[in-house]
Amino acid sequence: MSTATTTPETDTEPDSVDERVSAAHPLALVFKRPEMGALIAALAVFLFFSLTTSAFFSAGGATTWLEQSSTIGIMAVAVALLMIGGEFDLSAGVMTGFSALTVGVMSTYWGWNIWLALVASLALCLGIGAINGLLVMRTGLPSFIVTLGTFFVLQGVDLALVKQIIGQVSIQGFAGLDGQRSASWLFTSYVSIGDLVLWSSIWWWVAITAVATWVLLRTTVGSWIFAVGGQVTSARQVGVPVFKTKIGLFMTTAGCGWLVGMLTLFRYSTAQSSNGVGLELIFIICAVVGGCVMTGGYGSAIGAAFGALIYGMVNQGIPYEGWDSNWLYAFLGVMLLLAVLLNNWVKTRAENAS
Amino acid sequence: MSTDQEHAKTTATSTGHAEPGSCILEVRGISKHFGSVIALSDVSASVRAGEVTCVLGDNGAGKSTFIKILAGAHTHTEGELLVDGEPRTFTGPREALDAGIATVYQDLAVVPMMPVWRNFFLGSEVSKGWGPLRRLDVPFMKRTTKHELAEMGIDLRDVDQPIGTLSGGERQCVAIARAVYLGARVLILDEPTAALGVKQSGVVLKYVARARERGLGVVLITHNPHQAHPLGDRFVLLRRGTTMCDLPKAELSLADLTSMMAGGDELTDLTHELEHEDPSPPSANA
Q1: Which one of A40, B259, B264, B285 has the lowest number of neighbouring Cβ atoms within 10 Å?
Q2: Measured between CB atoms, does B159 come within 8 Å of chain A?
Q3: Cβ of B231 under 8 Å from any chain A Cβ?
Q4: In terms of Cα–Cα distance, which of A238, A219, A215, A218 is closest to A228?
Q5: Cβ count near A248 (within 10 Å)
Q6: pLDDT digits (tens, 9 = 90+) for A124-140
Q7: Where in chain A does DSSP place strands (E)?
Q8: What are residue B32's DSSP bridge partners?
Q9: ipTM, 2 dp
């Protein structure tokens, strides 16, 4: 009985749609996607600021809010994958500062070749990601707690260890290094269209979003990610490599943290010990706004990218309006609550209704 | 990830189903200790192609431990586990699956928020293409899911709907259909009807019978002798971690089965007790 290789014969029209579902749905299908809420909200935010301020929908304005969205977006996409896989990473924010500091110390203070420093720092970040994953999987503790621990450890290292080594808490003199130029094309090249400048961080953001979406929707690993977040016991019983999948997700998040650290370090030629602290919650908010369910198993990478775009636009639009910039927090809070309500409603429908 | 397709093929081709009645899976004098607790002691049973072996027992009789050993979730402490006559020791569910032993657990068979077709192929996804373009063969997977479920008599409108939207019975059936499709030779069902109503239980039992017709060896764990007796070909009764009996259907009537399950004499006592206590005086407030 070689059932796996025989093609179903009774299906006379292989790709035909069942007549009972044909009528309703081209539009409904689009609205079922988890990222729809974020897309609509992004459009609304964009229209609002474009219509009410003059600076927002200008080349200069767009350059700024796109760049701000991009570094947040890279992390939000990685964090979204991790959330779909059922885990959190609170060390994701501080990781971006940690990676920049390690490269800074290695290259400016120890005089390492910049490429060597880059690779060493990447290995270090991936290692920390793997440790996060190992601790979560081996101890069975919630990742929320484990990565909160990593977060504080890294924050302490960023401040105390860096200060012990170089005597201060920020990296200076990075811009003048010989090797810095050879690697900078990776992180600080740009394309300008008129006055609109698209920094390489934007390309990274688009590329990572595209790859993550592809992985989720069209690869085996994507199925595994949804499965380990949705119902881990079932996944394990049908032979999904749960351990590898989760460790891989933690390492991906750490790797993206490294990338964002490099993008900021090369762009601004400086790194501070406080870099990235506090952003970990922004990433989670962006992922949730993008359609990720807090309990895992449902969500979208492109949605998280839209979530980050909303963040970037509002972050820039509020000063353009002349409002107090702290209103950003209130706005994020409202967005988060609305998104959670919407996601929960979708989840309940998916699990119960018929 | 690179071996999905091969994997799907090997499991399917390894299904060169044994002759009906030949022994696929056998345990001899198997025991399992958890520290000082003896969960299972000296249990023997066999699973034959095209037969349903029912494992019955009350709560705590060792049914769960028994199937977890067969499914590769536990490793036995003593005794032998033979697949096609070869002694094996499974170190995980994947190994048992590769040997053609698939287990469908009562409430953990599927991932509720994933579409039906993704659930159907979960852990055995079919891909096409090379290198970075290697991707899921989604049209094939959807088509096959729909077809295989139709074969089992489940007619789904849309295999893209989350499997959580199906009824409990349908979900069990999808899990059974996927195990059959993916080349299982032995199907272990853990209390498949425990959470289901009468009608849905009937549907699930019908698919169990259909899996048997396709030449699979079925292990059905249940504590309901009324469901087990019509379907089963062989009955293994567990009690307090040991085998109480291991008999073919011909040597065991439903009445025997029911009374043995309840513990024979104990049931008689209970019947008496209930009958004596029952005739309460016709109450005044009626």
Answers
A1: B285
A2: no
A3: no
A4: A238
A5: 20
A6: 999 999 999 999 999 99
A7: 170-171, 190-193, 196-199, 271-272
A8: B40
A9: 0.80
pTM over 0.90, yes/no = no
CB A87 within 8 Å of CB A252: no
Distance between CA atoms of residues A343 and A289, nearest Å: 9
Residue A256: band (very low, low, confident or very high) from pLDDT cuts 50, 70, 90:
very high
In the prediction, which pLDDT does A188 show?
85
Amino acid at the residue B20: P
Q: Across chain B, what does the average pLDDT equal?
A: 79
Over range A103-126, report the average pLDDT: 92
Residue-wise DSSP of B139-168: HHHHHHHHHHHHHTT---S-TTSBGGGS-H
A-chain CB neighbours of B111 within 8 Å are 226-227, 230-231, 234-235, 297
Contact B149, B156 (CB under 8 A): yes
Q: What is the DSSP letter of B53?
A: E
Please compute the mean of the pLDDT values over residues A69-88 and round it to a whole number. 96
Task: At B228, list the tokens.
Answer: 């087990």
To 10 degrees, the CA torsion angle through A308, A314, A315, A317?
A: 140
Structure tokens at B119: 């659930």
Out of B108, B118, B167, whose CB is closest to A223? Answer: B118
A93, two tokens: 């924010």
The mean pLDDT of B132-141, rounded to a whole number, is 89
Answer with the residue of higher pLDDT: A172 or A160.
Answer: A160
**According to the model, what pLDDT value does residue A42 have?**
93
Among residues A69, A41, A35, A77, which one has the least CA distance to residue A301? A77
Distances (CA, A) of B188 to B63, B75, B153, B243: 12, 17, 20, 18
Please, what sign has the CA dihedral across residues B14, B17, B19, B20?
positive
Q: Residue B19 gets which letter from DSSP?
A: P
What the block records as the tokens of A299 is 């969500």
